[in-house]
Task: inverse folding
């Protein structure tokens, strides 16, 4: 974690929507199930390979996220256990036909975000999360690679009115550069960081009370689970993940799109989400289960409002430089990076790297600055109207 050094002392934290149609067999799984692993007939013996714990700040952090990574897909179920004797309240993830490697620590002390520690237990293989009094947790799973995610929330605190916090997430980075246009020497991860930095500068200028933090300030690896988790633990008011679109085939138009997290059968939205998630369009059951169980109307409504303002302002400013910049609208898709956000959260595809007029414009500071001004103005408009 030290190499990321995100959020100041805790500054911790692809892309391709094309016009080409996906194959007919790339369909969304329509059924929404409760949180569960694949059936016994579908699974193979699994191994727990790593346990990642994400949190930010000290003991007063608002929450923590625990990610269990596997080789194979385990059958599992969860138990919410009350305090018993010297044992605190717990979340137990019971695993079947699963082992863990020697590199997985038997116990990890956390001591923040409502989470005391994470430990392995036997004889029945299970992972136990020891919670602080009043803390709660929610469990879901993601695929490719298979991981079980537990979001822990600390006891609700009545805090004094504070300055709003905006977390900007430059997409990709490190070993995941995202989309590219070699002709114009454009790489998504670098452009996303540039746009995030310009947006942060502009937002601080027009809204001095706002605190603005980036999930990464360099070209580093950062997992999709970590980005949103850190915004949660910092109790951010807004989370914006910044990306650029692309296509492996010629496109007739480019444009700006702002996404919110929700189920969607639109094939192009599914295709883009699959590329961003690094998975297949059919591998969305874990997200659907999570949304079915935990989707909150307030957060969803706030995300739609935020998305509309960012979309409108970004288009307006972008068109000052590129008058024919297309409006692809506010849309819904299942992006892993937005899963579990407790604040209004959106993913912005700011332009097309593979649409020649926009690619050429992105090589200029004037266009990048115009887009950043739009994103910042949209965020400020949302915060002022709350």
Result:
């Amino acid at each position: 974690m030290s190499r990321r050094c995100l959020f100041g002392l805790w500054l911790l934290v692809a892309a391709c929507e094309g016009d080409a149609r996906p194959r007919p067999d790339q369909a969304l799984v329509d059924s929404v199930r409760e949180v569960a692993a694949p059936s016994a007939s579908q699974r193979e013996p699994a191994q727990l390979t790593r346990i990642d714990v994400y949190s930010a700040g000290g003991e007063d952090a608002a929450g923590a996220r625990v990610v269990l990574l596997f080789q194979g897909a385990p059958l599992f179920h969860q138990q919410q256990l009350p305090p018993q004797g010297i044992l605190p309240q717990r979340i137990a993830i019971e695993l079947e036909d699963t082992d863990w490697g020697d590199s997985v620590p038997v116990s990890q002390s956390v001591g923040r975000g409502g989470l005391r520690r994470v430990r392995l237990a036997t004889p029945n293989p299970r992972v136990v999360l020891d919670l602080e009094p009043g803390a709660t947790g929610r469990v879901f799973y993601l695929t490719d690679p298979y991981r079980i995610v537990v979001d822990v929330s600390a006891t609700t605190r009545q805090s004094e009115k504070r300055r709003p916090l905006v977390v900007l997430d430059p997409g990709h980075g490190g070993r995941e550069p995202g989309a590219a246009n070699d002709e114009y020497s454009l790489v998504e991860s670098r452009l996303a960081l540039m746009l995030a930095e310009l947006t942060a500068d502009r937002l601080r200028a027009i809204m001095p009370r706002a605190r603005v933090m980036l999930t990464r300030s360099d070209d580093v690896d950062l997992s999709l689970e970590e980005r949103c988790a850190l915004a949660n633990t910092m109790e951010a008011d807004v989370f914006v993940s910044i990306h650029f679109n692309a296509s492996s085939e010629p496109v007739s138009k480019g444009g700006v799109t702002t996404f919110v997290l929700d189920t969607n059968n639109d094939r192009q939205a599914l295709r883009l989400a699959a590329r961003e998630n690094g998975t297949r369009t059919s591998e969305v059951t874990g997200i659907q289960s999570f949304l079915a169980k935990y989707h909150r109307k307030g957060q969803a409504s706030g995300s739609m409002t935020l998305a509309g303002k960012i979309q409108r302002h970004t288009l307006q400013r972008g068109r000052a430089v590129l008058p024919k910049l297309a409006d692809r609208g506010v849309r819904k898709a299942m992006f892993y990076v937005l899963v579990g956000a407790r604040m209004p959260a959106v993913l912005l595809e700011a332009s097309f790297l593979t649409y020649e007029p926009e690619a050429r414009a992105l090589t200029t500071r004037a266009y990048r600055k115009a887009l950043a001004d739009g994103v910042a103005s949209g965020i400020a408009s949302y915060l002022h109207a709350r």
